[in-house]
Amino acid sequence: MTQLRVGLIQTRTPATHAAALAHVAPLVREAAAQDARFILTPECTNVLQKDRTKLLPTLVSLEDDLVVRGLRDLARELGVWIDVGSALVLREDGKAANRQAVIDPTGAIVATYDKLHMFDVDLPTGETARESATYEPGDRAAVVETPLANFGLTICYDMRFPALHRALALGGAQVLTAPAAFTRPTGEAHWDILLRARAIETGSFVIAAAQGGFHEDGRGTWGRSIAVGPWGEVIGKLDHDEPGVLIADLDLAAVDEARAAIPALKNARTFTGP
Predict the structure, then answer these.
(1) pLDDT tens-digit readout, 34-53
(2) Residue pair 245/25 in contact by the 8 Å Cβ criterion
């Protein structure tokens, strides 16, 4: 198929799983009611809690997670694909993971991806962030082939690493997912620019479903969910940080057209140095 309607869900995820499911489910239903066939939710769809001592005891496996189970039921009921942009879960080895999960219309989980890049930083203000203190990073990229399109999976901070997106495009991805819980200062400065750059560099669609607003745990996220075409054009955007649904129609033929016009994927060369 060449035409695909997607739904991007913007949430303000609460600090408990039950409340998170009650929050996201009506938005998924709204997207499906507008004929979206592939529905993407943000990073941390199942819970948003920055206090590790409160968060970690609540995490379970992906299969046992209340929100993931609820979204699998919804996918089956509505007959749609749902990409859980990420759920915070326990890995098989007992470590925590920030994991994306693609659910088909039968409710089956057909692909997963663990966030590769951890946001570890020491700021001049004295503030620090250590995602790696809570989550074990993944070690593989993932392209999901579906009857709708081929999707390359990324999560939030991954968008700052062009090599990952290039690998996904070379692996056959036509649409790159970028679920996120972007901070407000970096969102205002970099959100649109980074996503449009990744689309242009790879000749791919980029769909970014975001957390938005001020959350129960005290953090603020940028919102502004966006869909970008392979020429870098903004197809649709929510110009706010409130919960909501963005519907975008993707003409997948535009991917081949963009890559033929700017054959950067083919023209790249290996090099030595500096």
Answers:
(1) 999 999 999 999 999 989 99
(2) no
Render the burial of 235-271: b for 16+ CB within 10 Å, e for the rest.
bbbbeebebbbbbbebebebbeebbeebeeeeeeeee
At 211, list the tokens.
């957390």
Q: How many CB atoms lie within 10 A of CB 136?
A: 16
**pLDDT tens track for 142-180:** 999 999 999 999 999 999 999 999 999 999 999 999 999
Among the listed residues 97, 106, 96, the one whose alpha carbon sits nearest the alpha carbon of residue 147: 106
Which domains, from first to last, does the chain contain?
3-264 (3.60.110.10)
Q: Looking at 30, 43, 63, 136, which residue is catalytic?
A: 43
Q: Is 44 a catalytic residue?
A: no
Report the alpha-carbon distance of residue 178 to residue 41 in Å, rounded. Answer: 10
Q: Locate tokens 């057909």: which residue?
A: 110
Is 266 one of the annotated active-site residues of the chain? Answer: no
- Strand 96-103 and strand 109-114: the pairing is antiparallel
Question: What do you get for the CA distance between the two ends of the chain, in Å?
Answer: 44
Q: Is 50 a catalytic residue?
A: no
Q: Which of 30, 156, 188, 201 is catalytic?
A: 156
Q: What's the CA gap between 216 and 221, in Å, rounded?
A: 12
pTM greater than 0.90: yes
CB-count exposure of residue 124 (10 Å: 0-12, 13-18, 19+): exposed
The answer to whether the beta carbons of residues 175 and 207 sit under 8 Å apart is: yes
